[in-house]
């Protein structure tokens, strides 16, 4: 992973997610689509990561809230380290969301990178460098991680 830092920390169009994708796939920030500006960003993300032989399992998301449930292609699970065992991630790393330290009262999430132990290994906002706990950590646990989006390596799927 290359640690790429966001350039825009505006709550309406920040580029933390773009920086996380650039970090995971070891590219420059400018090479990654500006997802926040796109209505159909899910499709653009899928196309982008396919270039690196990864896929995204239709919001197969691990949430830290609630009980296991299935909503069509959206599968939500109570977040725990065991749930990550079925995913390789990108070299064992995953895109995760936490409550934004600055804007969580507005319901805004912030993108970070975690490992399989659910430890935060990179926050693209240089102001949060080295931070390990985010808003509501005491309430939801796991450093305040709200969700983890696991990518799958395409060759692993074929097996």
Structure, described:
The protein is an alpha+beta fold and 159 residues long. The chain has one domain (16-158). It has helices at residues 16-24, 41-50, 137-140, 154-158; strands at 54-56, 60-63, 69-71, 74-78, 93-99, 109-115, 120-122, 145-149, 151-153. The strands form two sheets. It has a seven-stranded mixed β-sheet with strand order 3-4-2-8-5-6-7, covered by helices on one side. A two-stranded antiparallel sheet has the order 1-9.
Shape: globular
| Residue windows where pLDDT falls under 50 for at least 5 positions | none
Q: Terminal Cα separation, in Å?
A: 25 Å
Number of helices: 4
- Across the major sheet, the strand order is 3-4-2-8-5-6-7
Taken in chain order, the helices and strands follow as: HHEEEEEEEHEEH
Structurally, the number of domains stands at 1
The overall strand count is 9
- What characterizes the major β-sheet? 7 strands, mixed
Sheet/helix structural class: alpha+beta
Radius of gyration: 15 Å
Helix content: 10-25%
Strand content: 25-35%
Mean pLDDT rating: 85
Q: What descriptors fit this protein?
A:
single chain; 159 residues; 25% strand; 4 helices; 9 strands; two-stranded antiparallel sheet; seven-stranded mixed β-sheet; alpha+beta
Structure summarized in a few sentences:
The chain is an alpha+beta fold and 159 residues long. The chain contains four helices and nine strands. The protein is globular and about 40 Å long.
């Amino acid at each position: 992973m290359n640690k790429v830092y966001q350039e825009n920390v505006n709550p309406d169009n920040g580029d933390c997610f773009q920086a996380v994708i650039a970090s995971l796939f070891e590219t420059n920030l400018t090479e990654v689509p500006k997802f926040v500006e796109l209505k159909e960003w899910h499709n653009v993300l899928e196309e982008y990561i396919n270039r690196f032989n990864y896929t995204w399992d239709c919001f197969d998301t691990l949430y830290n809230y609630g009980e296991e449930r299935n909503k069509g292609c959206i599968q939500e699970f109570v977040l725990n380290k065991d749930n990550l065992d079925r995913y390789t991630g990108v070299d064992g790393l995953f895109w995760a969301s936490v409550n934004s330290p600055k804007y969580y009262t507005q319901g805004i999430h912030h993108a970070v990178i975690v490992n399989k132990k659910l430890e935060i290994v990179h926050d693209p906002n240089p102001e949060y460098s080295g931070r390990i706990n985010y808003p509501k950590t005491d309430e939801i646990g796991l450093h305040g991680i709200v969700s983890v989006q696991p990518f799958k390596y395409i060759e692993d799927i074929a097996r």
